[in-house]
Amino acid sequence: MTLIVGLRYLASSGAFALATRAVRPGLYTGLDAQIRREIAWSLASAAIYGVPAGIVAWGWQNRGWTRIYTDPHAYPLWYLPLSILLYLAAHDTWFYWTHRWMHRPKPFRLAHAVHHASRPPTAWAAMAFHPVEALTGAVVIPLLVFVIPVHVAALGLVLGIMTVMGVTNHMGWEVFPRFMWRGAMGGWLITASHHQRHHAEYRCNYGLYFRFWDRLCGTDRGVGGFDPAPRRARAAGGDAPGERRADD
Ligand SMILES: [Zn+2]
Ligand SMILES: [Zn+2]
Questions:
Q1: Which of 65, 104, 117, 238 satisfies CB 3.0 to 4.6 Å to 233 for a cystine?
Q2: 47 CA to centre of ligand 2 in angstroms
């Protein structure tokens, strides 16, 4: 399972990094050392993600664990999209609160600083987490499959959405159509325009898929732009402004 997660990461981040090179040539110029770090942390995270996923997948196949089902008629068909939404909402809730917690000074220094060392993040930063943070992320879906019934294909879709959003949110440009990050629908969804602002300003925009918790808790600062200034600062040998804000 570790191998699958690792290859999934390399394939998805690699594909979007290639797309970035085609659509925004030069966006990652000068970031080679950072990208190498992002890949190393991400592969370590993949190893960690693989362990609970592997145990649960084995238990599902061999011991009948979990509430994953394969007969699409085991539940009403309307439950299929609902189950996907439930998984995304539960994961989002878990992510929002653990993420906010990891912005407290101690856990930030211990773990989350690794993720924010990417300034600005690239498509390779999707799984660039300290092992402690990787562990908090790795247990979510393996625990949820014991609680919320889900068809195996719906679960595959959830994992697909998780992968694509993890990569595109860090890519440095917006791949999705405008209605997904502006207007009535965009007001509730998180794409790169929203998460980029978290990486730029730290103490806001903590969510993963939805802006619900950010808006409810007053931590939503809206979508931001993609400022090429960090690249200019690097070119001039300037220091990135992020670190000093970590504990504020
Ligand atoms: Zn991030
Ligand atoms: Zn953060």
A1: 238
A2: 21
Please name which ligand lies nearest the alpha carbon of 99.
2
Distance 98 CA to ligand 2 centre (A): 10
CA of 226 to the centre of ligand 2 (A): 17
Residue of 239, 234, 199 lying closest to 29 (CA atoms): 234
CA distance 47 to 45: 5
**What is the C-alpha separation between 142 and 147, in angstroms, rounded?**
10
What's the rounded mean pLDDT across residues 2-23? 95
42 C-alpha vs ligand 2 centroid, how far in Å? 16
What SS3 state is found at 65?
coil
Q: Give start and end residues of each alpha helix (H) in the chain.
A: 2-23, 32-63, 79-102, 105-107, 113-116, 131-138, 140-144, 152-168, 183-186, 192-201, 212-216, 229-235
Instruction: Name every residue whose Cβ is closer than 8 Å to that of residue 108 and which is 6 or more positions away in sequence.
Output: 102, 116, 246, 247
CA–CA distance, 227 with 9 (Å, rounded to integer): 26
Of all residues in the chain, the percent with pLDDT exceeding 70 is 91
- Whether 230 has a pLDDT exceeding 80, the answer reads no
Mean pLDDT of 56-68: 95
Report d(CA 3, CA 43) in Å as an integer: 9
For residue 60, which of 158, 128, 151 has the smallest C-alpha distance? Answer: 151
Q: Which amino acid is at 77?
A: L
166: CA distance to ligand 1 center in Å?
8
Average pLDDT, the chain: 91
Question: Which of the residue ranges 63-77, 109-123, 207-221, 222-236 would you say has the lowest mean pLDDT?
Answer: 222-236
What's the rounded Cα separation, in Å, for the pair 232 and 73?
Answer: 56
